[in-house]
Amino acid sequence: IREGPSDLLIATPGALSKVLKRKMLSLEKLLFLVLDEVDTLLDASFIDLVKDIVQHVFLKDVVQQAFLDPNFEDRDLAWDPKAQLVAMGATLPKGLSQMLNESADLSNFTILTGSSLHCLQLHVEQRFIRLKGGEKVAELLQLLKERGSSSGAVIIFCNRARTVNWLGYILEDHNINHLRLQGEIAADTRAGIFKAFQRGESDILLCTDIASRGLDTIRVELVINYDFPLTLPDYLHRVGRVGRIGSKFLGTAVSFVTHKWDVDLVRKIEIAARKKSPLPGLDIVVKESLRTKKKF
């Protein structure tokens, strides 16, 4: 930024919000704002930062000032087209329409989706194993032992960082080479861990949902949900790490079902898989709000 204007800026919400508040950067001439992995950017961790950034992009105040102040000088700026917002993701979150309503006219937005939006990949086998919590470790070890020498890599998902660490100690006790990836690890270290996984230094990645979005790998043959995900979007993202374009493996997702509340999600997943239909409840709010211009 200090070296001069750039045509492209890639930033995290926190870093961009910080430089905007310090007035180190102006978005007045911005043409496109792209929110990649928008469902993640609109969760509780980032949504306030993203709202702040979007408010810097949609220059309502400048346009209003041009109309109200006869001495307003920079009328060219006021009549320049506003920046185009592009929100991209494998799922469209409920908070998207609410955030956009605060900054723009929703009737000006167009939703472009593929026919497979919110659908499970048909070539990926979905398996659910009902078992007690105390049986999960033994089942996991058995699945790992069944892998052949030509098998692809494995990603094991847990819901908490402490579970990743605890399970990692168990794998170490069984001399199972693995890598761990969770949010308590520094960002630069996490990047190095994933690169090591990509290079094949280990065929087993033990992680939280931090690895379920935005990380592309064609090495994975098996996803294991050691902890069943808490939401359908989380499930969709996790199983999306396997069977990706360019992979030689069709892929399998195995989920341990332990709690009563897991069963309800499993039923919805099984019905969607049989009907080859989208997972329920993921995009209703967005579509309704765009259609009715509903205020939240």
Automatic annotation (TrEMBL):
Domain Helicase ATP-binding, residue spans: 1-110
Domain of life: Eukaryota
Pfam families tied to this protein: DEAD, Helicase_C
Keyword ATP-binding applies: yes
Occurrences of domain Helicase C-terminal (ranges): 136-290
Chain coiled-coil ranges: none
Keywords: ATP-binding, Helicase, Hydrolase, Nucleotide-binding
Sample GO molecular function, one term: helicase activity
Gene3D superfamilies (alphabetical): P-loop containing nucleotide triphosphate hydrolases (3.40.50.300)
PANTHER family with a match to the protein in the record: DEAD-BOX ATP-DEPENDENT RNA HELICASE 50
UniProt protein name: RNA helicase
Species in which this protein is naturally found: Micrurus corallinus (Brazilian coral snake)
